[in-house]
Amino acid sequence: MESPLFLAGFERIKGFERAMAPEQMIEELKNLVDEGKVRVDEDSLQTFGKDWTKIHEPKPVAIVFPKSTEQVQSIVKFANKHNIGLVPSGGRTGLSAGAVATNGEIVVSFDYMNQILDFSPSDRTVKCQSGVITEQLQDYAEQQGLYYPVDFASAGSSQLGGNLSTNAGGIKVIRYGMSRDWVSGLKVVTGNGDILELNKDLEKNNTGYDIRHLFIGAEGTLGFITEATMKLTRQPTNLTVLVLGLSDLTNTMDVLQTFQQQIDLTAYEFFSHQAMGHVLAHGDVQAPFEGEAPYYALLEFEATSDAVMDDAMALFEKCVEEGWVVDGVISQSETQAQNLWRLREGISESIAPHTPYKNDISVVVSKVPQFLQEIDAVVTEHYPDFEIIWFGHIGDGNLHLNILKPADLAKEEFFEKCLQVNKWVFEIVEKYNGSVSAEHGVGLTKKDYLGYTRSAIEIEYMKGIKRVFDPNNIMNPGKVIDL
Predict the structure, then answer these.
(1) Mean pLDDT for the stretch of residues 290-318
(2) Domain boundary residue among 81, 109, 137?
(3) Based on the domain organization, do 227 and 264 belong to the same domain?
(4) Overall domain count for the chain
(5) Residue 201 falls inside a structural domain
(6) Within a domain: 265
(7) What's 390's domain CATH number?
(8) Among 296, 316, 348, which residue terminates a domain?
(9) Nearest-5° Cα angle at 272, 267 to 276
(10) Which residues form the FAD-binding PCMH-type domain (predicted)?
């Protein structure tokens, strides 16, 4: 049954030619994909029209589920013909409203483009459709005796296409880099409806512009990624986790520098005591040690030998002697390592009931302590009744600022107050030459603040690139930049 949103959506589409009735147009759309792969019922519109953000109301006109690159191409040509916007939908775990359809667009879901297509053991690459779930790729790599290192809390539901479209980072960036560092090649459908095979999986290809990197991080505004060839690496050996209680925020850098002089870390995370408190309140995990500290650091490394473990313990003792660390615990098994990781990875889930307003910001690593302290002071001064939760990938300069909604404050009023916070926060980001979005993307929530990180000239060049690949502005319109 057609939802009221379905008919109303067509009335909102800018420039829609009403020579064809909405019902006829949907019938034409149905002819482009397999039977049953177009939905207009209200449950589907609400489910697939949004991501994890709660600020914007989803108002798509239809959801379409292609199963091949050629079907995606047909949908893009259809959208150009009828001047209808297309919004990509993957695992819908985004935090910047990059996959929210707010203005009568057609949502293109990649749920059925979820096949692993090819594997090359000699190249150590795997070719995937864009709907492959991150954890699915990780598991497949493990089955081949290899490792896909890009990892984050949403790995069980996020999709590869979405990861690449936002250049997702996660918890292993300090050792393995961002998503873009693992892409050998891409197949994309541009806003013009052209199919491009980018880089052809070559390790060396010095033949002009590397267009694949324009699509990585573009949030579907230039075109849709339909396939990706991803690089794999060797499996890590005996990953060991160390959680340290820090005396002061500035000690995060002291500890990082001390350990990096002798050990190659695979992760370096931090979280505040308030953040850990929400995780502990769930009752699924215990505090790492009896004492308390204002901040905690989580270090992960490969304990490849007894000598490496001895080095780690000696470095820990040095940090204690220097007064940087008040206590610590080290994993003795894989299960213990997983439990210690839950102290960090359980934060987002534990604070979700409090409707957190999230900021995903970054600076160069050396500036993190003073940067965080300055922002925390501003937010606390203006909103002393708001609980502030800090955590993040401090080893690569990425911090997550979460402001929790008081129970007695309406959501609309809370978000309005947080928009005032944004200006102060992003002025500090600009002062430190940082980024208003380290890994979550720009979408709708950060679009108005892009100028704090990108110059006006840069933004004009971005608009020019958008016009080349998507001249009719149908690909995720309104996200990242406005034309």
Answers:
(1) 96
(2) 109
(3) no
(4) 4
(5) yes
(6) yes
(7) 3.30.70.2740
(8) 348
(9) 90
(10) 56-235
Percentage above 70 pLDDT, the chain: 96
pTM over 0.85: yes
Q: Whose structure tokens read 């060797």?
A: 234
Look-up of token digits 């409203």: 97
Q: What is the pLDDT of residue 21?
A: 60
pLDDT digits (tens, 9 = 90+) for 369-394: 999 999 999 988 888 889 999 999 99
What are the tens digits of pLDDT across the range 307-336?
A: 999 999 999 999 999 999 999 999 999 999
Task: Indicate whether 171 and 75 sit together in one domain.
Answer: no
Tally the residues of the chain: 483
SS3 annotation, the chain: CCCHHHHHHHHHCCCCCCCCCHHHHHHHHHCCCCCCCEECCHHHHHHHCCCCCCCCCCCCCEEECCCCHHHHHHHHHHHHHHCCCEEEECCCCCCCCCCCCCCCCEEEECCCCCCEEEEECCCCEEEEECCCEHHHHHHHHHHCCEECCCECCCCCCCEHHHHHHCCCCECCHHHHCCHHHHEEEEEEEECCCCEEEEHHHCCCCCCCCCCHHHHCCCCCCCEEEEEEEEECEECCCCEEEEEEEECCCCHHHHHHHHHHCCCCEEEEEEEEHHHHHHHHHCCCCCCCCCCCCCEEEEEEEECCCHHHHHHHHHHHHHHHHCCCEEEEEECCCHHHHHHHHHHHHCHHHHHHHHCCEEEEEECCHHHHHHHHHHHHHHHHHHCCCCEEEEEEEHHHCEEEEEEECCCCCCHHHHHHHHHHHHHHHHHHHHHCCCECECCCCCCCCCHHHHHHCCCHHHHHHHHHHHHHHCCCCCECCCCCCCC
Same domain (yes/no): 256, 307: yes
β partners of residue 237: none
Residue of higher predicted confidence among 21 and 139: 139
Average pLDDT over residues 266-271: 96
Query: Which domain does 58 fall in, by range?
Result: 4-109
Closest CA to 194 of 76, 83, 105, 108: 76
